[in-house]
Amino acid sequence: MEIGALQRTRIAALRRIVADLEEAAGCEARAPFERLRLRLDGWTARVAVIGQVKAGKSSFLNAFVGAPGLLPSDVNPWTSAVTNLRINLPGDPAGGACFRFFDEAAWEEIVEGDPRVRALAEEMLPGFDSGILLRQAQEMKARAQARLGLAYGGLLGRAHRYDSVTPEVLQAYVCAGPGADAGLEDSGLGPYSALTREAELYLRLPEFAVPVVLTDTPGVNDPFLVRDEVTCRSLDRADIFIILLSAHQPLTEADLALLRMLPAERARNVILVLNRIDELDEMDAEIEPLLSDVAERLRAALPAAAAISILPGSAWLAELALREDAEARALRKAADGPALRRYLLARCGRVPETEAGRLRLASGMEEVKRTLGSLIDLGAGHRQLAALHEAVRAETGALVALTKRERRSLAQQVESVSGSAAARFRMEIRGEMAQLSDLRRGIEERLEQLTPTTDRILARGAATLRQTVETAIRAFLERHRDALAARAAAGDRRPMSVDLAQLGRLLDRELSEDYRRTRSAADEALAEALAEAAGLASERFPGVAAGLSLHGLPHEEFATSLTLARRPLTVDMIARRSWAFWRGPEADPVRTFEALRRITLAELLPWLQKILAAAAEAKALRIETGKERIGILLATVDRAMAERAERLQSDAAVLAQLAADPVRAAQMSNRLQSRLEVLERRLQILAICDSRLAHPSLADAA
């Protein structure tokens, strides 16, 4: 089985088309296709393996890539390295590793941090305290300084590279060792672990048909908050997520909180693995009810859960199937019992003949790989390639129109090259350049007019959203003001707990609706500008906009990992300042409400600022990408003008002499005829490429 085989075929097919287009375009029009080819060459599926600490992520990855014991599974809390397994990436070494160290700026980023990351950490770890994170980061830094001594300063911002990698090398950089907490003098392992920011391992694995980066994150719901911090920062870099749960306690609140960080668009690219099924008392009887229970609770908690694949697995069984030592042989024999065979028959419908085959099938690793391959082929990977496909079609359509226009111009020149027509033709070229200049100015003006229009749309959307959010927050607080007054009147002085989940859902909904409204208005403005610019360009370049569209623009829906913390806020009832000694203190609803208001706003404002900024960034990127599509028309005119200017400059002297020199006139005619033949061949290649791009199945058209 090959992971991403269909995607590889599609990428290869599109790359062949782009290479043909690049060759056919000629030097003057090659640059856009060179950029597209480089984007195709750099395409990589980015997969993050995440879950709570001790969920078995490292063991899972060891089994997944067929290297038992490669990644240390006993990572000490004083390490926070992210490990990237870079599989089959072009330009990477055939093997080895690179370990990158924190620099002062990176330490500052973790210590001072981003409010967005704080919100994510609060989401995953109730009771999160930024002060704790600060102290832990400082302690981690002090530990690195103490371990490395004078070498510490020289390592900051540097990297260590190895031509080959062993578990012992990895331990030195990502595992602090058994003595780390007992005292520095006893720590025999991991001298660089506290300072390591990122580890990159280079692998060549034939079963991966496309380049893949598998990221082993430090873990979430961890008392060592720096690791929560680093994990949160890894989420936005990934396209696909493998989330490991423990079969003993699947789908805890921390697991659900982690899943809530992935909005609907990303939830379609999640694989949920119930690891450690081998540790269940009765695997054959317990797994199916367990899967059903997880699916039911997942649907109840998350609307987008229906798209999530839930698979049972055991990294331990997969590793046993790979190992050949005496201990593994004994363990395999013990694991390969009647319960395992009953489980395989019930779930897979077959029982392999060999012991290793049975353990491998029961581990679920093949099913996880098939599911990952499907997401690369039909999920996130397919959508990314579709956007590249649209960009290639747009550039191809523009080049076809430009080439046709150039062919017509050359045909006219061939007919006009005679002594009496030479001077007139020079004037025609100059006149055409003036017309192209006017056309360019017209398209440029339309693009310039588009900018204030989209700016107004963005500003109006932001203002409307802020007003909606403020109204929602005020209404939320007013309801609690009334509840506080009622409790004070009843003499209830117990602390008041406020659940922000309902408000968070309301604000999420308002944000999504605002994004759709703003996106629709911006898309309408882009479509109008495209139609007008295409109309102008088509007068000189018929068909120039045939392959140009706004399909595949980024951020069709707003998707971010930023989530409002769901932990409840607790406010103590504040007593009135003065009260008679014969009565107990009375609750002061006014002052208590003011405390509630301040706490709520302190909780909400960092989240609001960041999520509004993230939404604005998504809108702006979509608009800029649309403008780039329209800009293809401008680039087409620029190329035409450059070609006409070059022709006028190179031919002017010859054209001036044609009237008195029939031989030169014949030479000019032959020269133009040769150019015309080149353009005819170019158009034939472009027509074939355009037909291949329009084929329903790109792989079949290649």
Walk me through the structure.
The protein is an alpha/beta fold and 702 residues long. It has helices at residues 5-25, 31-41, 57-64, 104-112, 115-124, 130-148, 151-155, 167-174, 225-235, 253-260, 264-267, 283-301, 315-322, 326-335, 338-348, 355-362, 365-378, 380-416, 422-489, 501-540, 589-657, 662-694, 698-701, and strands spanning 45-51, 82-87, 97-101, 159-162, 196-203, 212-216, 240-246, 270-275, 309-312, 496-498, 569-571. The strands form two sheets. A nine-stranded mixed beta sheet has the order 4-3-5-2-6-1-7-8-9, sandwiched between helices. Strand 8 (270-275), helix 12 (283-301) and strand 9 (309-312) form a beta-alpha-beta unit. The two termini are 23 Å apart. Mean pLDDT is 78; it is low at 123-128, 177-188, 220-231 and 578-583.
Rg of Cα set? 32 Å
Number of strands: 11
Show unreliable segments: 123-128, 177-188, 220-231, 578-583
- Profile the largest sheet: 9 strands, mixed
* Residues in β-strands, percent: 5-15%
The gross shape turns out to be globular
Total number of helices: 23
Helical fraction: 55-70%
What would you call the structural class? alpha/beta
Strand order of the largest sheet: 4-3-5-2-6-1-7-8-9
How far the N terminus sits from the C terminus, by CA atoms, comes to 23 Å
Overall mean pLDDT score?
Answer: 78
